[in-house]
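Forum > Structural Biology > Help requests

Title: Can anyone predict the 3D structure of Polyketide cyclase / dehydrase and lipid transport?

Hi all, first post here. I have the sequence for Polyketide cyclase / dehydrase and lipid transport but no way to get a structure on my laptop. I'd be grateful if someone could post the structure tokens.
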Amino acid sequence: MAVVERLVQSPSDTIWEVLGDGWLYPVWVVGASRMREVDDSWPAVGAELHHSVGAWPALLDDTTQVLECEPGTHLLLTARGWPMGEARVDIRLAPEGTATRVRLEEDAVSGPGALVPRPLRSPGIAWRNTETLRRLAFLAERRR
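Reply #1:
Sure, ran it for you. Structure tokens for Polyketide cyclase / dehydrase and lipid transport below:
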């Protein structure tokens, strides 16, 4: 799995508010371009975000589903992005004083993306997720 971490200068409950607002997903997730629908129960287990990836006019509609949720501390997601496949995304929040360490682990679990050897796919995922955490931090730090 590709793992990235960032110390966000914001309390974990503020970061959780951003994660819990499914309509913000394309603002902080690199590659997501628009939201089509957010299940009312988001981010409860089984809830889905209905999003699109890519750039107009080449948009692909797909979903992200919650597999595990520990409110305020942990989200485990299956992010679909066909035709590339599916990825498992594990987000963990750990308070550190007035800040929060956000850890994001991701790896391809099915489809063509999973056929790429891990040493070749992990750097690209880590690069993308470094920017994803930067965007998440901007949103959370501006809410204080």
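The beta strands are 2-8, 32-38, 48-55, 58-70, 74-80, 86-96, 99-110. The longest helix spans residues 118-141.
Shout if anything looks off.
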